[in-house]
Structures are given as C-alpha cells and as structure tokens.
Design brief:
Residues 48-310 form the Reverse transcriptase domain. This protein is α+β, with helices and mostly antiparallel strands. The protein has helices spanning 5-13, 28-33, 35-52, 87-106, 123-139, 154-157, 160-169, 174-184, 214-221, 249-268; strands at 61-68, 79-84, 144-150, 187-193, 196-197, 201-203, 232-236, 239-245, 279-283, 292-293, 296-297, 299-301.
C-alpha cells in the first residue's frame, strides 16, 4: 500500500480543529494551517512507515484523560476515560482505514447484519430492520423471543493474534498486514491528571482506544458472528440482537442452539459476555422457555433499551 500526496492534503485540510492533541501536543489546528507546507513531507513519512511495516513508537502512546461523570469523585467508576493519540498518527490511520474499508465494502466482505461504523448503516437502520420483522411476525400471530447480548469490554479485549489471523482470512496480506501487526504491538498508555503523567503501562490486547482504525478492526474481528446462527440477527459493533418468531417449541430450541453457538464463539475468540446485561425479551403471546448462555440463565424482561442507543 502507498498513499498519494493529494489524499494526505485532503485529510489535513479536513481536520477538526476542536479536537485535542496527543502526547506530542501537535494540535489539529497547527497541521491544518500548515497543511500545504507539510503534506509532501508527511506523504514521504507515511509511505516509509508503510513500506517498512513500522509505526514510530511515539505514535503508539495514548494519553488518557479521566472525565468526571458525576457522583463520588473518589470512585473511579464515575470517570469516563478519554484516550488521546497523536494527530499525525491518526492521519495515517485514516488513510489505512479508507483502504481497508474500500476492500471490505467493495468486495462485500462485511456481513449485512452489521450496522455499526459503516457508511449507509446506522442505529436507525438497525432499528428499522428489527421493527419491520417484529411487526410482520406479530401481525401473523407469532410471538417474538429476542435475545439482547452484551460483550464485556469487547474493544479492550480483542486478541491480537486472532485479529491478525482474521485480517489474513479477509484478504489483508503482505506489507499492510505486517504494518497492522506492528501497529498493534508495543503500545502504551499514560494517565494525565492535573498536568501530571503516570508511568507508561503496556497495552497487550484490544484495538487502540481513541484510534481511527479501531472500529474497522473490530468489525473484522466480529464479522463471522452472523454466519454461526440460523435465527435473525443484527449487530451494532459489539451489541448483538438475536431473535426468532416462535410458532412452536422447535423455534425455542433453534434459538437456544444459536445461543450455544455464540457462547462457543465468545470462548474461542476470548470475548466474554457480560451476563448481567444479557436479557430475553418476549413480544406477543407468552411462550414459556428457559434460555441459557453458557452457565448463565437468561432473565426475561418486559422492556429493553437497544444497545445502539447508548
């Protein structure tokens, strides 16, 4: 993969100047205002990185700023971590992400069930598809059993070895695959509080938080999920909604078999489910059935907020 100077210039001129810089303190405003002076040199730098399959170590350092959400200030759960990465590295990430997306979408590689982080897909398209299918089932007198499944810190737990294997299976090879491997390795994070920085901590799993490439890499990681099931399924990134129109008890058995397949996938891919957030929703005439996800019995609920609305 190589990048051309015009693409680099276009991204530089389109930078959001309200965004914060990473540890290098080079702001988007500086890069945007100096774009026409910098873009040829940055193009050479980016192509050198891609050809050598190496990402500078300074670009792999994320700075976490804890944002207070409310409540007890001494409780760490009341803070939302925001990770800042060097803007220059995110410019290169955008170029790589565009290349990956063109490959994935142009070859119809991504599952039609995935509605997250994709052009012409959204939370709205997710909900409209669900509404149409459920309405049709209810109009025909068939109740719906829907499973709302939540993975626990999925983006932070992506296994790098498995991800690289899946990238290869999705047609990403050669220097680009080697570059992505280097991009994922030897990453560190630091926490900044009141201007003071913590010691760097190694990041050994997950797609980089605050990155441009992270969402696309996760879509590849989860792309085989819909192939495992026979019931209806839609995803919004890591949020899974699985359902069946229940005409007989055989429909319940089929839905349970799909839950078994998803649980097995979570074990193989080292992405555990958050059992406390996994629920069953019944719509229409009640059909009694006990569903399990691995060792956990799924609780029934009368209402559930769709994960894509969070």
């Amino acid at each position: 993969m190589t990048v051309n100077a015009e693409s680099v210039l276009l991204i530089l001129l389109g930078l959001n100047t309200k965004k914060s810089p990473g540890a290098d303190e080079i702001t988007p405003l500086i890069l945007k205002q100096c774009a026409r002076s910098l873009y040829t040199s940055l193009t050479d730098l980016f192509n050198l990185s891609l050809n050598c399959s190496m990402v500078p170590m300074d670009w792999k350092c994320g700075t976490i700023t804890p944002i207070f959400k409310g409540g007890d200030r001494s409780d760490v759960s009341n803070y939302r971590p925001v990770t800042l990465l060097p803007v220059i590295s995110k410019v290169l990430e955008r170029l790589v992400a565009n290349k990956l997306t063109k490959h994935l979408e142009g070859n119809n590689i991504l599952s039609i069930a995935q509605h997250g982080f994709r052009k012409s897909h959204s939370c709205l398209s997710n909900l409209l598809l669900t509404l149409d299918d459920w309405t049709l089932a209810i109009d025909n007198g068939n109740p719906i059993h829907a499973c709302y499944l939540d993975m626990s810190k999925a983006f932070d737990r992506v296994n790098h070895s498995i991800l690289l294997q899946k990238l290869k299976q999705h047609g990403v090879t050669g220097k680009l695959l080697a570059w992505l491997e280097n991009y994922l390795m030897d990453r560190v994070i630091q926490v900044r509080v009141d201007g003071a920085l913590s010691k760097p901590v190694a990041v050994t799993s997950g797609v980089p938080q605050g990155s441009v490439l992270g969402p696309t890499l996760f879509l590849i990681y989860a792309n085989d999920i819909p192939n495992l099931v026979r019931c209806k399924i839609v995803l919004f990134a890591d949020d899974i909604k699985l359902w069946a129109s229940i005409r007989t008890s055989e429909g319940c058995v089929l839905l349970q078999e799909d839950l078994n397949a998803l649980y097995d996938w979570s074990l193989r891919n080292k992405l555990p489910f958050n059992f406390q957030k996994c629920k069953m929703l019944n719509i229409g005439k009640c059909v009694e059935f006990t569903y399990i996800l691995g060792p956990h019995r799924l609780a029934w609920t009368t209402d559930e907020k769709d994960g894509c609305l969070d």
